[in-house]
Amino acid sequence: MTGLAVQGLRLACAAALLGAAQLPVADSAHAEGDVARGERLYVDCVACHPIERGVHGIGPSLHDIIGRKAGSVMEYRYSRALRNSGLTWTAEALDTFIGDPQASVPANRMPYAGMTDASDRADLIAYLHKISK
After folding, report:
1. 105 burial level (CB within 10 Å; 0-12, 13-18, 19+)
2. First-to-last CA distance in the chain?
3. Integer angstrom CA distances of residue 23 from 38, 54, 125
4. Are residues 111 and 84 in contact, defined by beta-carbon separation less than 8 angstroms?
5. Is 6 part of a structural domain of the chain?
6. Helices and strands counted in the chain (H then E)
7. The domain spanning residue 100 has which CATH number?
8. Fewest CB within 10 A of the end CB: N or C in the chain?
9. Listed residue (120, 114, 68) closest to 90, CA to CA
């Protein structure tokens, strides 16, 4: 690569980073995620979490989850820990919770070890954004 090409690449990277730094955290994970891949990943969640409004399974419906206060769906019985967590389900809060539910909200009842891959979480959150519109 020539010196001019390297400088152009650096400028392009800097512009991309600057643009990404200006995105709010809640939009960042959504913007970076692959909705179609997130929908495929949701297959692992749907056994407990339906996406239909008012339909609950072992876990509460995730219909309109983005922006919802944790533990606030009246017809679902949440753990005291989740009800009292003070969380609002933003992309950042979901990313933390899905990554390690017990570390995020100790003593919650969700029997899930967590999704360790950040790319998988971003894709899943992008899908949750889509179904929350």
Report:
1. buried
2. 45
3. 21, 32, 16
4. no
5. no
6. 7, 0
7. 1.10.760.10
8. C
9. 68
| 62 within a domain of the structure (yes/no) | yes
In three-state secondary structure terms, 28 is helix
pLDDT tens digits for the chain (133 residues)?
454 333 433 433 333 333 333 333 444 444 579 999 999 999 999 999 999 999 999 999 999 999 999 999 999 999 999 999 999 999 999 999 999 999 999 999 999 999 999 999 999 999 999 998 7
* Residue 111, domain extent: 24-131
- What lies within 8 Å, CB to CB, of 58 at 6+ separation is 47, 48
44 token code pair = 């692992």
Tokens representing residue 98 in the block: 């899905």
The structure tokens 């609950």 sit at 56
